[in-house]
Write a structure and sequence with these properties.
By secondary structure, the chain is α+β, with helices and mostly antiparallel strands. It has four helices and five strands, in the order βββββαααα. The chain has one domain. The chain has a three-stranded antiparallel β-sheet with strand order 1-4-5, with no helix packed on it. The chain has a two-stranded antiparallel ribbon with strand order 2-3. α1 runs antiparallel to α2, α1 packs parallel to α3 and α3 runs antiparallel to α4.
Length: about 100
């Protein structure tokens, strides 16, 4: 495998439908890896945490919460970006709870 760049995929958005609303997750900085079967695009750790937290907030899936914590503990996270995302998505109160859970 080798890493490849794809400037056309450096930013974008993913849409998912929650119980009462359409949620748009903005993402940036996608890594690409070329394999024998094609190019695999990977979200950066911060955007992966957003994805896991969103599913936790929408579905109360404890496994998603744990995955977000595990990723945040193991990788560099853009905390200001994550806080802004929480505020924009209407989960501002959850940001402090998530940060606090990292210390446990």
């Amino acid at each position: 495998m080798r890493s490849v760049s794809d400037p056309t995929r450096s930013t974008g958005q993913a849409n998912c439908r929650g119980p009462d609303k359409l949620i748009v997750v903005q993402y940036t900085r996608i890594a690409s890896i070329e394999t024998d079967t094609g190019i695999v695009r990977l979200l950066n750790p911060t955007d992966t945490v957003k994805d896991r937290l969103l599913w936790y907030y929408l579905e109360q899936d404890g496994q998603c919460w744990q995955q977000a914590l595990d990723i945040a503990r193991s990788h560099t996270i853009a905390w200001r970006d994550l806080k802004t995302w929480h505020e924009r998505e209407g989960y501002a109160d959850e940001y402090a709870r998530f940060r606090g859970a990292l210390d446990k």
